[in-house]
Amino acid sequence: MKKYPRRSTKFISMRNLKFLIYEVFDVLALTKHDYYAQHNRKMFNMVLDAAMKLSAKLLYPVFEEMDRNPPEFIAGEVKVHPSVRELMKQYGEGGWIASTFPEAFDGEQLPLLVANCCNMMFSAANYSGSAYPGLTAGAARLITNFGNPELIDTYVANMLSGQWQGTMALTEPQAGSSLSDITTTAEPSGEGYYNIKGQKIFISAGDHDGVDNVIHLMLAKIPGGPPGVKGISLFVVPKYRFEGQGTPVFNDIVVSQIYHKMGYRGCPITELAMFQMMNEERVGVGLSAASIASAAYYAALAYAQERPQGRPILSKDPLSQQVAIVEHADVKRMLLFQRSVVEGSFSLLLQCSRYEDMLKLTKGEERETIELLLDLLTPVAKTYSSEMGILSTSQSIQCFGGYGYCEDFPVEQHFRDMRIHPIHEGTTGIQGMDLLGRKVIMKDGKALKLFGQTVRAAISAAREHEALKPYAALLDKSLKSLESITLHLVGVAAEKGTAVFLADATLYLELFSYLAIGWQWLLQAISVQKAMQSRLSKSESNFYQGKWFTFRYFFEYELPKAEGVIQRLKSEDALTVDMDPDFFND
Amino acid sequence: MKKYPRRSTKFISMRNLKFLIYEVFDVLALTKHDYYAQHNRKMFNMVLDAAMKLSAKLLYPVFEEMDRNPPEFIAGEVKVHPSVRELMKQYGEGGWIASTFPEAFDGEQLPLLVANCCNMMFSAANYSGSAYPGLTAGAARLITNFGNPELIDTYVANMLSGQWQGTMALTEPQAGSSLSDITTTAEPSGEGYYNIKGQKIFISAGDHDGVDNVIHLMLAKIPGGPPGVKGISLFVVPKYRFEGQGTPVFNDIVVSQIYHKMGYRGCPITELAMFQMMNEERVGVGLSAASIASAAYYAALAYAQERPQGRPILSKDPLSQQVAIVEHADVKRMLLFQRSVVEGSFSLLLQCSRYEDMLKLTKGEERETIELLLDLLTPVAKTYSSEMGILSTSQSIQCFGGYGYCEDFPVEQHFRDMRIHPIHEGTTGIQGMDLLGRKVIMKDGKALKLFGQTVRAAISAAREHEALKPYAALLDKSLKSLESITLHLVGVAAEKGTAVFLADATLYLELFSYLAIGWQWLLQAISVQKAMQSRLSKSESNFYQGKWFTFRYFFEYELPKAEGVIQRLKSEDALTVDMDPDFFND
């Protein structure tokens, strides 16, 4: 039997990323502003190429090895794969951890639009590996944004250089989704620092031997403060603190266990015996999920293009040659599904990144508009990418048949690595409540109104192209449904109370996702239509035709799923509120 | 922190199984026929209790251990967990492998309706463990149904006693879904046996040290036969054959590798260097999938009932006590989803089992009706249970939050064990083609007509109950949609050809599933309405109320999903047929 390569060489499409940043989101427009003026297309391309090289040479080769040799907890110490130290060193020295930081911190002021394309490559190549520098960048950004100069001086440089790991220490055994219930306390010592006591669980990269120090950004309550979330403060808690002339002193942070996980095995999740991030981290989770789905998709595609099985449906001759399975309509459907998830998610995530970049350039009402849109879209980008990522990697397995279930190919690991994403940084249920219970109704529904205007602008632009008119009409209809469902639910809130209003918040989020992703596909289709007006090389033509079919796939197969959700959201039967939990017993 | 039990004591609901066989499917009606006359309610209950005891004492305790210590391939031999030998012994001695066999083989002539309830318990307790006796029973049945007396004498007794393992050796490297392409040859030796040569892959329990012999039922082609599937015959190929006075002789079956799998790790899948089962095996896969989903559901339920997190949505006091998460509407929704999948699948699977039992009792037109319905429903029962099983176990993980992703609780294993089911015994794509391309159109659509009559009979019966009328109307509407979509597709076949007709066969199967499961839920709801007319104890009332809410859940949240599928199936855009596979390249 023909041996298939265990790994495809491709895990993400550079062509697609360039399409998104240059053709859909016009990253060069950002460089007209002072803050990004040092960059240009040539430099962006160099950065993207360097990121691809790093992904291919450093991360991708140890993808499986890090899974098969997960972190070990030996005598109180967490030992990780030896490649982690090398990786943190190269990320630090290459300026990758600092890339989006201001020049004041020796950063590159790289737009997130570009930096997140790099992060997509890193995560697609090896999600666990990419988590170490990613978490460090996130923690360092919290210190530079909110810390005083002393904290910045003490910690940031060594984090951005990859010598020290950063973490977020938020969850406690009794307080996961319910953050207000944390009990970790911070007692002022009277000497300029706090004594912190409590237990934190589920801390990614919470301790390991690939760095010289670990800096926890930790949530705790100062005694005497108000109850609930208002009494929570954020502390910088290093594994080693520095006394006098900089002598490192062990700071009494004891790792009590590491978790044995289904996937994401290349990175330790620890329990610490002794926080929640913002939009950027939630977008980051969505980004990781979509990137994993990308890698699984390209693995499935490579296999489908090589694996002969079956014949064209009209061929009756059992002795004729078998065709590659990519020829079968049902396999194309499965591949188009995956591609629609991957490229739809990437598009929405980069839309959020672009908004994030623009926050640096705008003020007043313009800035408020962007902030509101970003707030509204963040739970959507996080959840669509994570939840659909499970289905997408599952279809990647399905393309392989029985081989997909075996460790011979990487897709079973992608499926395992994926499953954490609808859980961490706020579960899907929490995202739904955040969207419907907070984002949609805040400021009298202003964010939703702005979103409607933004989508309608895309619909108008699409109507300039004859081929897009029917799709523009479909999206317009969905948008109206979303708006009328929202009004209906606000009525329910007034009439039947908050519990009934929020009971199906998760479904509302699902409905919102179809619309948001449909909007992104319409934006992409406008760029495709423009590009197809020129004469194209064979490979460029294949790319745009592929985009065009994937766009049609989304509108034909995915957007109609909104119908079922709409039907449910209109219903009067509040059965999940009414049902007595005892009815689960028998 | 409170320590939660790692395993719930419950993995399946005996109350639900009894509800299904006594109240919905009236198993006692079968005992009025001679073939089943030896049985009665008391005996069925004893069998069910014994099966539950065996599941709880023998299978459930080693569920995780068999996963963490998967089979090893050492010096050409497959070593399995030591409990496998004990398990095969107890299943053999207890008469479990032979339970449904005729008395002529020392079987119990147990109705499949009851036997499959036992199999559900076994699979829910430990899917890998249950596979060994299950595969043996399936292989032995093929020999008793199709083998000559010599084959029966030589093999069956030792298989039913659990001393010998049975397998199905079907797939080859170049022939998975495309069975006609097998190349294993069977040359007549001229001495009453065949010399078989070829390579078989993906053989569950294909070899192991928990038994004394392994009997493969193997597909091969006799040279000179017709090409394609018509030239394939089924052979009995033992690991050890018997010569002269019964001396065992090694039969040259070499195991070349075992597969390292994501789940289903307690059972070896081997490659043999040197076949497809029928309805029963496909129903068996669905049964295993739904049983795994059952175990994961009860694990999630137990956790949700104990785990405090958050407060009622109207409680503003952060100092008030947290409630168990089962109180939250969104968690109830997730649990109801799982329960609707588990109990909907079980119901359809037992419907198939009842039809199977009735085949033994009927002839002529009545028998043909049952055969057609069984043929039609088999791909549906297999696929709904397997595909929804992935989503159901995924929601079980979600109920646990971060803990669900860790090996501390069993649900991550259920999620991994589940993923094989949409692949083996015919992938979902193959089931879709089987349903639309064969079952629906055979005999001028007779099976579909009979199905329509059967569902309409349930709808009429439901209309006798005031509370069921709106649901009966919904199902009636869905049935009409299914019928009109089918007609539409038959028109497409005539106009645009088979390739376009079958392009969305998988979606047609999905649509059919919503309807078939809706039918089963309506049947259950009729029994619930009848039962609720009596005075009930608290626990009985809880059971029926739980059923009633799960039924409503299905009609409110799941059945509407048919809308999106219908919308797509009506579309004219045959994009998955039209798309050039080169468009996947860029």
Task: Report on the architecture of this protein.
Chain A has 586 residues and is mainly α. Chain A folds into two domains: 31-277, Butyryl-CoA Dehydrogenase, subunit A, domain 2; 281-314 and 321-576, Butyryl-CoA Dehydrogenase, subunit A, domain 3. Chain A is built from 20 helices and twelve strands. The first copy, chain A, has helices at residues 14-24, 27-30, 41-59, 63-68, 83-93, 112-125, 127-146, 149-160, 279-306, 329-359, 364-400, 411-418, 428-439, 446-462, 469-496, 498-503, 505-531, 538-558, 561-569, 575-578, and strands at 72-74, 77-79, 164-169, 185-188, 194-197, 199-204, 213-221, 232-238, 240-243, 247-250, 254-258, 269-273. In chain A, the strands form five sheets. Chain A has a three-stranded mixed sheet with strand order 3-7-8. In chain A, helix 9 (279-306) packs antiparallel against helix 12 (411-418) and helix 17 (505-531) packs antiparallel against helix 19 (561-569). Chain A starts with 13 loop residues before the first helix and ends in an 8-residue tail after the last helix. The mean pLDDT of chain A is 94. Chains A and B meet through strand 6, helix 10, helix 11, helix 12 and helix 13 of A and strand 6, helix 10, helix 11, helix 12 and helix 13 of B.
Labels describing this entry:
Butyryl-CoA Dehydrogenase, subunit A, domain 3, globular, 12 strands, three-stranded mixed sheet, homodimer, 10% strand, 586 residues, three-stranded antiparallel sheet, mainly alpha, Butyryl-CoA Dehydrogenase, subunit A, domain 2, 20 helices
